[in-house]
Design brief:
The chain has 169 residues and is mostly helical. The chain contains 9 helices and no strands.
């Protein structure tokens, strides 16, 4: 019985250590993601280096690579954090309003308000998406569905001229 109790205590102690270690790993990962997002907001994703991220996060390069073995995983984590902090507007809810001018105005207001709050990061990301394949892929994954939804909801019942103007807006 006592050897069983000793074993149980050892397992609990090991579980505790693994739990604390897992927490520290998650904290380190979040520091790396926040550092990368900060740099993406000032330099753009395509111009941010691993060394810059590691330095700002206070980790070594090998620690960075232990958490993010490929750049895509980091970009997905950064874009996820950015969308968590300030999600794109909900355009589905606009279907409750009659199609036409008022719906378009409200939809554009929501979108412009989002861009206003996120202008620095969005500007760098959209600039880099033009020439950087990974940035373009992540933008399409994270923002594409919302933009498609916005186009569908806002253009409902618009004449061809108004539809073209909406595309410009």
């Amino acid at each position: 019985m006592s050897s069983s109790n000793a074993h149980d205590r050892a397992v609990k102690k090991r579980d505790y250590r693994l739990g604390r270690r897992a927490e520290k790993q998650a904290e380190t990962r979040q520091r790396i993601v926040r550092a990368a997002l900060d740099l993406h907001s000032t330099l753009g994703p395509a111009r941010t280096t691993v060394s810059q991220i590691a330095e700002l996060a206070g980790v070594q390069r090998h620690t960075y690579y232990a958490h993010f073995p490929d750049e895509r995983e980091l970009f997905m984590a950064c874009s996820g954090l950015a969308m968590e902090r300030d999600p794109l507007p909900d355009f589905k809810s606009l279907r409750a309003a009659p199609a036409g001018r008022d719906r378009v105005r409200e939809g554009l207001k929501r979108l412009y308000d989002w861009y206003s709050r996120n202008n620095q990061l969005a500007g760098w990301v959209l600039r880099d998406a033009e020439d950087h394949a990974l940035t373009r892929e992540v933008v399409e994954l994270r923002m594409g569905p919302a933009f498609q939804e916005a186009a569908e909801v806002l253009s409902e019942a618009l004449n061809p001229r108004s539809h073209a103007l909406l595309g410009v807006a």
